[in-house]
Structures are given as C-alpha cells and as structure tokens.
Amino acid sequence: MPIVTVQMWPGRTQAQKAELARRITEAVVTVVNTTPDATIVVFEDVAKENWAVGGVLASDAK
Fold first, then answer.
1. Cα–Cα distance measured from residue 61 to residue 43, given in angstroms and rounded to the nearest whole number
2. Catalytic-residue membership of 36
3. Domain ranges of the chain
4. What is the CA radius of gyration of the chain?
5. Topology of domain 3-57, per CATH?
6. Fewer CB atoms inside 10 Å of the end CB: C or N, the chain?
7. Active-site position among 2, 12, 17, 43
8. Distance CA 52, CA 56 (A)
C-alpha cells in the first residue's frame, strides 16, 4: 500500500488538494502497478515559520 505524504505551506484550497490527490494517485497506480483503493495521499500543511530554505526561515524570506 503506497503512502504519499505531501508537505506544503498552508493556503491551498480543498479543490486544489483534491486535484493533486487525484493526479498523484493516477501516477502511483501507473508506475507501481497498484490500485487507487490501495493508494493513500496525506497532506500536511507546514507553517512558513516551521520551514527553512537555504538556512533562512520561509517566514523571514523576502
């Protein structure tokens, strides 16, 4: 059972997450030869103050 975790900043709509889940599921089914029912997609919204790029918190980036 493939489990895909998507971490991203908050602010995506339910519609965006639904479309992303659909597309990820399609890709996983095709590539690893599984079924949609066996594919799990988990969304984790990570606040910008909890994410750093290049040593700089995303909340402090310009």
1. 23
2. no
3. 3-57
4. 15
5. Macrophage Migration Inhibitory Factor (3.30.429)
6. C
7. 2
8. 5
Distance CA 62, CA 55 (A): 13
The DSSP code sequence of the chain is: --EEEEEE-S---HHHHHHHHHHHHHHHHHHHT--GGG-EEEEEE--GGG-EETTEETTT--
In one letter, which amino acid is 58?
A
Q: What is the rounded distance in angstroms from the CA atom of residue 29 to the CA atom of residue 4?
A: 12
Q: What pLDDT, on the 0 to 100 scale, is given for residue 39?
A: 98
**pLDDT tens-place string over residues 7-62:** 999 999 999 999 999 999 999 999 999 999 999 999 999 999 999 999 999 999 87
pTM of the model: 0.87
